[in-house]
Design a protein that fits this description.
single chain; 16 helices; 0% strand; globular
Length: 486
Amino acid sequence: MTKEYGVDLCMKMDAIKRFFGSQDMTVGNPMVELVKFSIPLLIGNFAQQLYNTVDSIVVGKYVGDGALAAVGASFPVMNLLLVLLMGISTGATIMVSQYFGAKDRQNLSRTIGTCLVLTFLAGIFMMIAGYFGSGPMMDLLNTPMDIRDMSVQYLQIIFIGIMGGAFFNIISGILRGMGDSVYPLFFLLVASILNIFLDLLFVTQFQMGVAGVAWATIISQFISAILCYMRLSSMKSVLDLNRDTLRLDRKLAAKLGRLGMPAGITQVIFSLSSIVVQSLTNSLGTQVIAASIVVMRVDGFAMMPNFTFGMAATTFVGQNIGARKMDRVHQGTRDALKIGFGTSILLTLCLLLFGSNLMHMFTDTESLVALGVRGLRILAAGYIVFAGTQILMGVMRGAGDTAKPMWISIFNTVVLRIPIAYIWAWLTRSEQYPNGSPDCLFASLVITWVIGFIITAIVYRKGSWKKKAIVEADEEPVLSENLANI
């Protein structure tokens, strides 16, 4: 009996170890592998959105609509300076997934070491530039004076502690590239719970206002970053983190730059366009600013499947491109689209049915709630097609083609969204909205999403992205016994 119990316990421990370990997506049923990888990722994205949302709920309920608008008005500036992280993270996920799929331990370890060094350097730059640039950027945005100082205060605190968020996001991307979406989820849940507790403590008990929300965010991100690094350094059976690998490898850094630069440029363009649109939003008044940030918070939950399955597609395709299994790439793409569309439809229906209830979580101002519900109903038409766009772009990125998603995003953002938003605003000026209807902010997004999906589908069908694998130009991979027998 004791022997049987011991065998059963060992089998359970092995199953737990396999579940929490790196996931080799080059074998098994593609849909099963995608779902298994995506569930922790989806929960993690939910937790990320939740603790961002709690920030807004706490500020809106306990400080006021002006403070809510101040936090929302600061996001375009944050996104602009996070461009370096976007580039590093994109390049890291692609390279790590392909080297992991190719069973190349040496290049996998050196790539991770190079990513960590680049993250440290980028974090120092963002901390300095963000702290001293917050005030001038908010002035450039024509931020209303009643919220300007709160926005600057929030931004400066966030950038003081940007290093924690930087390392958490980069290391999470590295772990996901190796098929590990469970541990990043655990660490994000820890950060989310801690962030919610600190939000309530700093704002409701210490009366710290938007500064309290900012401090809660950076403290929780530092904790999650430390946990992520501990997990990464413990994976000795898969990679080596030592003095030889924790350095800047110029060849690998160049590859990271080539793969990550398009994503970085896309982020710059997106952030600049957000700043331009934020300037339009600011011209519509404080109430529209507050309504817009609430809509974006609720909207984030509907968008989660889109980004989740896009990231899952990147890892799945990266590993299978590295293993040179194109049949699995095509099957995985079809399965990811089925999962993405189905989940997005379900969440969109939920948001339409319960949108008003969600708005009341942020504010008791009925006019603001009505404005937000109207915005959600307009956006609902575009959620499903956006899921297809993100998955197909994730496939192309996983294959190593980051340029095409960049050009599509730039076209959608610069050529379509900004002109449509401003023209719509100009055509809808009225006594109630002298500078244009708030509908311009949401309708311009929907039009952009629909056209973007059509363009992305055409580019995907042409298939030139299949020739961008980074492992093809390398020498035969250096196999380790652990990687070879995963």
